[in-house]
Amino acid sequence: MSDIIEDEKFVELNYKVVDDKTGDVLVTVDYPLGYVHGVNDVMSEEVTKYLYGKKVGDIIEVPIDTKLLYGERDESLVFTDNIENVPEEFHQIGMTITMENDKGEPRDFIVTRFDDKTLTVDGNNPLCGRDVTFKVEVLTIREATDEEIELGGAVGADPELHEILDRAQ
């Protein structure tokens, strides 16, 4: 019997997120993303639920309502400041700047624009307010080991992977 995705199976995927309007690839992973299905679903439930019953080689396309994942776009999280007030190392489109609010809670802001006078940062998730489709390819399915089930993923996996995924989700 061919392995299919079900709870407690170790699964490896590749995926990309495509802007429905422009066709631009907004997010991609260049290495297999491994996890234990139903234990540590590293992708949103909106995507994960379509993976049940899929086999190696299957490709699914899931349109996502980004409002469900990230909420409404909040224009109050977009700031423009004089370029002189921003250290030069942040004068780069796509640069992430972590700032804290009055309560000391951190939030990432991304540099979205700058010129010789101003620099603009945006604290919304980059996918917020877009119509996107997750395109997911199933690469591996196998029985998970007890240790993988306990950890929710591959033993010895890179701990920074979750940070990358949190930004993408």
Q: How would you describe this structure to a colleague?
A:
The protein has 2 domains: 9-69 and 127-168, Chitinase A, domain 3 (Roll); 74-122, Thrombin, subunit H. The protein has 4 helices and 9 strands. The chain has helices spanning 45-48, 66-70, 146-151, 161-168; strands at 9-19, 25-28, 33-36, 59-65, 78-82, 96-100, 106-114, 118-122, 131-143. Strand 1 (9-19) and strand 2 (25-28) form a beta hairpin.
Calculate the terminal CA-CA distance, rounded to whole Å.
33 Å
Task: Name the helix and strand elements from N-terminus to C-terminus, one letter apiece.
Answer: EEEHEHEEEEEHH
Total helices: the number is 4
What structural class do the secondary elements suggest?
Answer: mainly beta
Q: Would you identify the regions where 5 or more consecutive residues have pLDDT less than 50?
A: 159-169
Layout of SSEs?
Layout: E1 9-19, E2 25-28, E3 33-36, H1 45-48, E4 59-65, H2 66-70, E5 78-82, E6 96-100, E7 106-114, E8 118-122, E9 131-143, H3 146-151, H4 161-168
Describe the structure in brief.
It is built from 4 helices and 9 strands; from the N terminus they run E-E-E-H-E-H-E-E-E-E-E-H-H.
